[in-house]
Request: fold
Amino acid sequence: MDVSHIINDLNDAQRQAVTLGDAHCLVLAGAGSGKTRVLVHRVAWLIQVEHVSPMSVLAVTFTNKAANEMRGRVEQLLQIPASGLWIGTFHGICHRILRLHAAEVGLNPDFQILDSDDQYRLIRRTIREMQLDEGEFPPRVVQGFINARKDDGARPDHIEASGNPLTLQMIEIYRNYQAACERSGLVDFAELMLRVVELLRDHPSRLANYQDRFAHVMIDEFQDTNTLQYALIRLLAGGRRTRLFVVGDDDQSIYGWRGARVENVQHFVGDFKPEVLRLEQNYRSTQTILEAANHVIGHNDDRMGKNLWTDGEQGEPVRVFAAYNEDEETEFIVSRVQDWLESGRKPSGVGILYRSNAQSRLFEQALLRADIPYRVYGGLRFFERAEVRDSLAYLRLVHNPLDDAAFERIVNVPARGIGERTVAGLRESARAQDQALWEATVRQLDSGALAGRARNALAVFVALIRELREYAEQSSLGAMVSRIVQRTELIQHYLAREPADRAEARQENLDELVRAAENFDQSMEDEQASLTPTASFLTQAALEAGEHQGEKWQDCVQLMTLHSAKGLEFPLVFMAGMEEGLFPHRKSVEEPGRLSEERRLAYVGMTRAMELLYLSYAESRRLHGQTLFGRPSRFVGELPPALVEDIRPQLNVSQARAPQGSGGSLPGLGSRVAHAKFGVGTVLAVEGQGDNARIQINFDDAGPKWLVAGYASLQPAC
Reply:
């Protein structure tokens, strides 16, 4: 039989994996080593050479996109329909099995699947029916609790509460929620898999049936499996004729925060004694990038171990840029993107990666100014995020009490007990009197038209807005936004209602909003239009939110978190914010295993780069309301000096005519200047010429500020 179409385009390690004999197998597939090709060609080899029935092959992956790609490539290679193969996600495969055996696990055959939003609403209704306080038992937190327990295979009766009253109540909510699901014939995503595990565990005949059916079980991205998924794999592989072929990379396990267990790789070796094969030849990156990534990940213990290499070019060194602050870091990266585009390369070849979502704001602003198309991959742009819009709605209402849209958005955020019925009454009253909602509310409070809980809640809200308005009259814009975030307790609102990682991201975004307001405070960009700083800031926020990011089909620079970058590749990659406390994250040193996962995340980011890799860090950065002077990330320090080029930007400072009030020509970089309000500082950067030139100054007391030369009235410092 001619098998050249199956094995000819494989390297030696890939060919060994594809043609493996009768044994369990663990393929440690490094980044860019062709793991999908190995899986597809393994299926083809089994069917065409070993004459395995397509119906006896089960191939499982983690996303519908990956499953569809695998199915299409199998069809193309075999030139037969792939409909006979079981190829799909864990949830998709389990759904298919449950439809066949619903009655055996006590389900209505017509059961419906709850998506995440529907599950949230049902949990919230359950909490209300139990007459519990949503502040003490936030629905989103309860949702995370239930799903995590299910992913561990635990029903309410299996959870150890250790006498903790909070845990006991969470268990009772779980119990009541599950009862509601069963009454209505509903199944959430975690339940799909748990029911199948229970079916196979508790019905030996069904287990034997599927063990006989699936002679070959193939798992992609094995390092991302959780406890329940590994339990399912062990059940299916318990038959004497079943062979497991799993592909993964313990160095790319970065989802521990959502239940992935990297230790499953080691468990698999211990439980099944597989052949262990390594795919180490990389088809993506230069040798320099691979050597740098190998050195970084080599600092992790308990690895299976491998060493990526390529027979391609050695490539250019990894560029490391030390910025004075995050503004300089942003300007440097965007200037390099401009150089890339001017050389004729495409925007889509650029990936800007960061650890925290909040870091996107500065890049969005700079790319907009430079008229470079961009897209925030897998997320919302900064000024579109809910917590940012909530804070800005408070600022809008403080600035203009007649703003009905702002009033409606935040009158009950955080929750004050002001329901839709109360707001509807205010709308009706406002329409009848031709007033704004704020005016109608104040009038009804003054007249005594409102009573009970609604009156008390609205009175608290009105008092808060009035307090903030008084504060605004005597405060800077930055101080005002900071005050709004503090007094409205939006951070506490999200921390109490959402899983820790999501709430922390929202807190970082609110901190970044405060920083944006502080830096905008004296930018004077709109003073010529006679706008107040608050009006200018709100205008900019609205315009930036209205500037649509590029569509998926457009050629755009890609902005994304490092977690979102897994599976992607770019000729040019920037990894920004490489500082201790930011990346690795400050919490990573507090929890066992977290630092190792942060290093794996750095490894994933570095191996996204095909041709050029830049790592940047700021010597000072505004975080959580204060300027921090950090040190470079340990991951930067783990790079071999021979692979690194340290760089600094070359800024061209124009010596223009003296702008009015500037006291002479534009100051040069590093010169000491004095400002009437901010005191003495050092010039960091100068952009433009004449009166409209923008000057960045790091003031000794006030920190970094951008000023317009024609209005700054700078004097040489004595």
Notes: The chain has five domains: 4-98+194-281, 112-184, 318-381+549-647, 384-534, 651-718. The first helix runs from residue 4 to 7. The chain has a mean pLDDT of 87. The CA atoms of residues 431 and 437 lie 9 Å apart.
